[in-house]
Specification:
The chain is mainly alpha-helical. The protein has one domain: Arc Repressor Mutant, subunit A, CATH 1.10.10.10. It has 6 helices and 4 strands; from the N terminus they run αβααβαββαα. The strands form 2 sheets. A two-stranded parallel ribbon has the order 1-2. α2 packs across α3 (about 40-45). It binds a DNA duplex (13 and 13 nucleotides) through α2, α3 and β2.
DNA sequence: AATGTGACATACC
DNA sequence: TGGTATGCCACAT
């Protein structure tokens, strides 16, 4: 287990920074953290998100197409979509509607 | 060091 | 929409 590695911690941190009603992608987070091509690790980090003390809005993190690729890892496959719709995000066929509009890029929003 | 793995990304069918 | 295949890189064993 990764325990509290800095990398994972950063991933959770960025995930928590995602504004309500917005979404981002694994690749975007990876890029922001400087590991651009290791987007897989972001997803893996999310897998451990559940074991974190603080809640991590993993439902706001989707793949590059805006598809809820990680829904299967929640308590129930519906949960992810439910949470998103609860924030005003519409989901159709496991894909975020207006993903481009709702997309929140940490590398862009958090850069100084 | 080597091998296996993955909530990705991209390409192709 | 779905499946397969390849590249990618950090982590686990």
């Amino acid at each position: 287990m990764p325990l509290n590695k800095d990398f994972f911690k950063d991933v959770y941190d960025v995930a928590r920074l995602i504004p309500r009603g917005r979404v981002t992608s694994y690749g975007a987070i990876a890029k922001y953290l400087g590991i651009g091509r290791a987007s897989r690790m972001v997803g893996w980090a999310m897998n451990s998100a559940g074991s974190q003390k603080k809640h991590v809005p993993a439902h706001r993190v989707v793949n590059r197409n805006g598809m809820l690729s990680g829904k299967h890892h929640f308590s129930t496959p519906y949960m992810m979509q439910e949470l998103l719709e609860k924030e005003g995000i519409k989901v159709k066929k496991d894909k975020v509607v207006d993903f481009e509009k709702l997309f929140w890029d940490p590398a862009k929003e958090l850069k100084l």
